[in-house]
Amino acid sequence: MSEQWLTSLITDTPQEGYELAIKLSRMGVKYTQPSDEIRAKLRPEYGEDANGLIASSQVIAINFQTVSAANNYWKD
Amino acid sequence: MSEQWLTSLITDTPQEGYELAIKLSRMGVKYTQPSDEIRAKLRPEYGEDANGLIASSQVIAINFQTVSAANNYWKD
Amino acid sequence: MSEQWLTSLITDTPQEGYELAIKLSRMGVKYTQPSDEIRAKLRPEYGEDANGLIASSQVIAINFQTVSAANNYWKD
Amino acid sequence: MSEQWLTSLITDTPQEGYELAIKLSRMGVKYTQPSDEIRAKLRPEYGEDANGLIASSQVIAINFQTVSAANNYWKD
Amino acid sequence: MSEQWLTSLITDTPQEGYELAIKLSRMGVKYTQPSDEIRAKLRPEYGEDANGLIASSQVIAINFQTVSAANNYWKD
Amino acid sequence: MSEQWLTSLITDTPQEGYELAIKLSRMGVKYTQPSDEIRAKLRPEYGEDANGLIASSQVIAINFQTVSAANNYWKD
């Protein structure tokens, strides 16, 4: 991917950190399936499926661990 | 999401930390599927399905790792 | 949940820590599905299903990581 | 469980640590389904199923992280 | 595998680190199924399946934790 | 298992560390299903199944976290 989308893991607040974790999770999907069209077609498949939603929340949780550690849990 | 819902990972007690982990897990679902109506419709799908409940508990466990580390395991 | 069920992550022994990890795993299920009746009905579904048992053991393993780190692996 | 089965996470070698991780993984199953008879009946279900074997190896991997950290990766 | 493909976990930027995490995830698949032909045949199976995409993003997230820690979260 | 197969988590290079993570992942399968014959029969089941390959890569990723930490990410 030539586009620059991730220059830092540091955020001002935990909520921005959580939203960065969401972005990281989505980019994992995008790198695996680069076609916007196919991803758009699949979105309802997990967005309206309980297991797909829980699985999505799990990927976000894993990425949020990384972002939180990078920010020393916003304790500084 | 313009609403502010996460200003700190610090909690007074482990139980409040666990409850924050639940909130983080639910927000992952909410960001992925913002429609209150669709999420309400899906709730019985995982709430009354053994695998869905175990998967939900797993996401909470991952987020609880983050919250626990942020609070230095409430040892201070 | 108004009931107080988690006041500390510290335990005397690794085995008590493991049992606390089990409790944390079960509470994740209970918060997601608060009805005792529905949970009781679902118990055989995962308790007598190989995948459900492995998934349960996985959630316990994740929570045991947290409890073990909190106790500095019972090395002190 | 009144039986004492886990008194320490410390092992002499990485291989013994791996074998302790296996024991931890099995105990997660045993606590969830205490009946020896039912567990024996389910064993072929995951032992002869590719997904069940991979899932079992994953639980062991998570517990091995814990045991490895407890032993400072056997570097001392 | 005699080919040398991983000489360092250090990258200049978080984005390069994320892309290394993708490479690590793909190599896990390649070591398990070395046949280029079979892997090519399977690609549409997960690339056009919502669950496969989320699962792929999860493996990347786990590897990104490793790469991020190796780089001290690019904070130096 | 009386055979000695794991004497150290330390490797010279990240790639050897990744290959050790693969070995750890396979041993988790082998301990769970010791029969060479049954494992050989199951191999095509996950090696030619997209979900099985992604799941295999995930177990490797978890074990690679452990091996990478043990080696201080090969930074010394």
UniProtKB/TrEMBL annotation, chains A, B, C, D, E, F:
Domain of life assignment: Bacteria
InterPro entries: Hexamer_Tyr-coord_heme_pr_HTHP, HTHP_sf
Molecular function GO labels: peroxidase activity
Keywords (A to Z) from UniProt: Oxidoreductase, Peroxidase
Pfam families cross-referenced by the UniProt entry: HTHP
The keyword Oxidoreductase appears for this protein: yes
Name of the protein this chain belongs to: Peroxidase
Gene source species: Kangiella spongicola
